[in-house]
Design brief:
Elements (H helix, E strand, L loop, with lengths): L8 H12 L4 H8 L3 H11 E2 L2 E2 L1 H14 L9 H13 L4 H12 L6 H9 L49 H4 L6 E8 L6 E7 L5 E6 L4 H12 L6 E4 L8 H7 L4 E2 L11 H10 L14 H12 L11 H6 L7
Parallel strand pairs: 3-6, 6-7
Antiparallel strand pairs: 1-2, 3-4, 4-5
Helix pairs in contact: 1-4, 2-3, 6-7, 9-10
Protein name: Transposase
InterPro entries: Homeodomain-like_sf (IPR009057), Integrase_cat-core (IPR001584), IS30-like_HTH (IPR025246), RNaseH-like_sf (IPR012337), RNaseH_sf (IPR036397), Transposase-Integrase (IPR051917), Transposase_IS30-like (IPR053392)
Keywords: DNA recombination
Length: 329
């Protein structure tokens, strides 16, 4: 902790007085209770033509004091536009932006806390629209997101399971192998089409697509089509009725095994749940997915696959899955 105190205007006036009395630097320092090095620097820095003026010296000090304040990172227009684009247009979180910049440059460009402060201060709000939906704060992951209460009870029907999640292969449990997938469905408008999401546990790589109904037959078609060109060692879905006929998928995918979590334990397949939360940024609840084209859906899946993840050391799922490198910033 620094205990240094700058000279006051009164002290500067005393220096002028003692100089006029022909005091030495050491005597002046002793008289006003300062180190002689401080007095010596002050006289040399603020004397003109061997004449020391306390008012001029103090004004110069105030100007230097103002100029020495650190500059804000986001005052750099290029960095500001980059952060704004990744946050507003691509839904990257502040940690993802900061981490990816560090990953590509090898040094800290901007911290996630700086980005959070900018968001909360309204730096990324649209002009004259900051009062609408609380501005850019709504772009943050959980801002305003509804939560289940403690007494919430799952009312979905029970299905017959083939394997318990505790029986999953070691390569799935420790995330050491590609090909162990977690699956779920994301509903838009009730009774309409839904999204099927399949996430690789090791790399967080997302595949899937649109099922025209949240029914087992339609969901099975999407699962089979999405995974037929990928390595598949196991699938861990939730216990929704849309996975009731999973035995059809088992046969179609060379007898891959399904492993089901315990009832009301979504955290046992947290990789998929987290990805579904990210996907909600593009497909909010209540939106009719029937009207959304498959091309757009796949583009948003690709957007997530090329979004850096903290758990991957700020690599993207695409880079981790295909063992390649991209340039994104």
């Amino acid at each position: 902790m620094c205990h240094y105190k700058h000279l006051t205007l009164i002290e500067r006036e005393k220096i002028m007085f003692f100089l006029a009395q022909n005091y030495s630097v050491t005597e002046i320092a002793r008289a006003i209770g300062r180190n002689k090095s401080t007095i010596s620097r002050e006289i040399k820095r603020n004397s003109k033509e061997d004449y020391y003026q306390p008012a001029v010296a103090h004004n110069s000090y105030l100007k230097r004091r103002t100029a020495c304040k650190p500059h804000k990172k986001l005052e750099d227009p290029d960095l500001y536009l980059l952060v704004k684009e990744k946050f507003l247009d691509h839904q990257w979180s502040p940690e993802e932006i900061s981490g990816r910049l560090r990953y590509e440059s090898g040094k800290c460009i901007i911290s996630c806390n700086t980005i959070y402060r900018a968001i909360y201060s309204g730096m990324f709000d649209e002009p004259n629209k900051s009062h609408v939906n609380r501005g850019a704060i709504r772009k943050l992951r959980h801002r305003g997101k509804s939560r289940h209460t403690k007494d919430y009870e799952e009312r979905r029907g029970k299905i017959q399971i083939s394997n318990d999640i505790s029986q999953r292969p070691v390569g799935s449990t420790n995330r050491s192998q590609r090909g162990h997938w977690e699956g779920d469905s994301v509903v838009g408008k009730k009774g309409k089409a839904c999204l099927v999401t399949l996430v690789d546990r090791k790399t967080r790589f997302l595949v899937g697509g649109k099922a025209f109904r949240k029914a087992a037959a339609d969901v099975n078609v999407v699962i089979i089509q999405s995974l037929k060109d990928h390595p598949v060692k196991s699938i861990t879905p939730d216990r929704g009725k849309e996975f009731a006929n999973h035995k059809e998928v088992i046969v179609a995918l060379d007898y891959v095994q399904f492993y089901f979590p315990l009832p009301h334990h979504p955290w046992q397949r947290g990789t998929n749940e987290n990805t579904n939360g990210l996907l909600r940024e593009y497909f909010p609840e209540g939106v009719d997915i029937t009207e959304i084209s498959e091309e757009y859906i796949q583009a948003m899946y690709d957007e997530l696959n090329k979004r850096p993840r903290k758990c991957l050391g700020y690599k993207t799922p695409y880079e981790a899955y295909y063992s390649t490198s991209l340039h994104l910033t």
